């Protein structure tokens, strides 16, 4: 799901339920939307809440019961507009689920009313990813449902903006199946760690902290993915430096192994601002057409003006049969 699609649901104030396995970015998509719109975001992890946490406490006033809502729910005084994310709803108790559905559908809960400008989005696990607490068809029928799947291109855009290590992004373009491995496969091996977009972000933290040892990688992404990534890291030590490429693009050494070219390309596009011509000159020297196509596609998405650069125009004209759709 593109961020623009999520924004459409917000603009229409349509009740949305995001489904997906753990670690694919359900909550992070909503966080990105809140950042883009510069709106406050209130996240409630429903699996960690009791009914009292969500509904509040009762009190007798003038012979009537009144409910005092918890401070974790948004108020118009704090902000007239924002996003309320009810996360992990499928892991919550049935009592908390029922209260959350009432809040989402009626925009009120007990004596609490959600401010008019606030939008509610819910997120949870698809039945195949985790056993669900009981939910009824009549409740589910009142929402728009979207299932999120791991998407390497979308994750790459996020990862480059978040300054994820280029070796991680490059490795996943070399082994795209390892962006996400269903947890049930790793559990069958007795491993709690498994590859997801979120756990690869953990790997980035390990690299930054100098803690990317085998046992730590296994703990984050499981043994099979850790072994392959460790081999990739070892091979990446032979990569040419970014500085050498940017200052001598026609002379800088090329990656010794084609699969390492992905990491070089990510480094160039992420760190090549102001050196666009040098970046394109180096990309056109890469050892195979697939790498050149990947590199130019990524570079053009960052610097559309390169499409009129003479060397790139000449290359595209010469290889136009293989480049239909590149722009």
Describe the fold and architecture:
The chain is of the alpha/beta class and 327 residues long. It has 3 domains: 3-147, P-loop containing nucleotide triphosphate hydrolases (Rossmann fold), CATH 3.40.50.300; 152-238; 242-322. Helix content is 46%, strand content 13%. It has 16 helices and 9 strands. The strands form 3 sheets. It has a 5-stranded parallel β-sheet with strand order 2-5-8-1-9, covered by helices on one side. Helix 7 (166-174) crosses helix 13 (261-271), helix 10 crosses helix 11 (223-235) and helix 14 runs antiparallel to helix 15 (289-302). The radius of gyration is 24 Å and the shape is elongated. The two termini are 22 Å apart. The model has no long low-confidence stretch (mean pLDDT 87).
Structural key phrases:
Rossmann fold, 13% strand, two-stranded antiparallel ribbon, 16 helices, five-stranded parallel β-sheet, 3 domains, 9 strands, alpha/beta, 327 residues
How do the helices and strands line up, and which of them pair or pack?
Blueprint lengths: L2 H10 L3 E4 L6 H12 L3 E5 L5 H5 L1 E5 L2 E5 L12 E7 L6 H13 L1 E2 L2 E2 L3 E8 L12 H4 L3 E4 L4 H10 L4 H9 L8 H5 L9 H12 L5 H8 L1 H13 L6 H6 L13 H11 L4 H8 L5 H14 L7 H9 L9
Parallel strand pairs: 1-8, 1-9, 2-5, 5-8
Antiparallel strand pairs: 3-4, 6-7
């Amino acid at each position: 799901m593109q961020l623009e699609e999520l924004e459409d649901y917000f603009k229409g104030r349509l009740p949305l339920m995001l489904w997906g396995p753990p670690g694919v970015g359900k909550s992070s998509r909503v966080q990105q939307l809140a950042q883009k719109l510069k709106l406050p975001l209130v996240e409630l992890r429903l699996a960690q809440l009791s009914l009292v946490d969500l509904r509040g406490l009762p009190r007798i006033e003038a012979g009537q019961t009144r409910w005092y809502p918890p401070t974790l729910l948004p108020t118009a005084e704090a902000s007239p507009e924002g996003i309320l994310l009810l996360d992990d709803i499928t892991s919550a108790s049935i009592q908390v689920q029922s209260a959350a559905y009432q809040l989402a559908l009626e925009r009120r809960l007990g004596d609490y009313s959600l401010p008019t400008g606030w939008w509610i989005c819910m997120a949870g696990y698809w039945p195949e990813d985790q056993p669900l607490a009981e939910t009824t068809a009549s409740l589910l029928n009142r929402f728009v449902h979207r299932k999120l799947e791991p998407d390497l291109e979308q994750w790459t855009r996020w990862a480059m903006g978040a300054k994820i290590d280029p070796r991680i992004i490059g490795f996943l373009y070399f082994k795209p199946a390892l962006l996400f491995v269903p947890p049930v496969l790793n559990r069958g091996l007795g491993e709690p760690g498994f590859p997801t977009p979120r756990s690869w972000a953990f790997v980035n933290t390990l690299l930054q902290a100098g803690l990317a040892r085998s046992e730590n990688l296994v703990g984050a992404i499981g043994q099979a993915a850790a072994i392959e990534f460790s081999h990739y890291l070892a091979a990446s030590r032979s990569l040419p430096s970014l500085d050498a490429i940017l200052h001598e693009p026609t002379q800088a050494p090329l990656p010794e192994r084609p699969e390492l070219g992905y990491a070089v390309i990510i480094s160039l596009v992420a760190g090549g601002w102001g050196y666009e011509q040098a970046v394109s000159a180096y990309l056109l020297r890469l050892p195979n057409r697939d790498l050149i196509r990947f590199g130019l596609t990524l570079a053009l998405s960052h610097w559309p003006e390169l499409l009129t650069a003479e060397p790139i125009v000449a290359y595209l004209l010469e290889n136009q049969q293989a480049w239909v759709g590149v722009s």
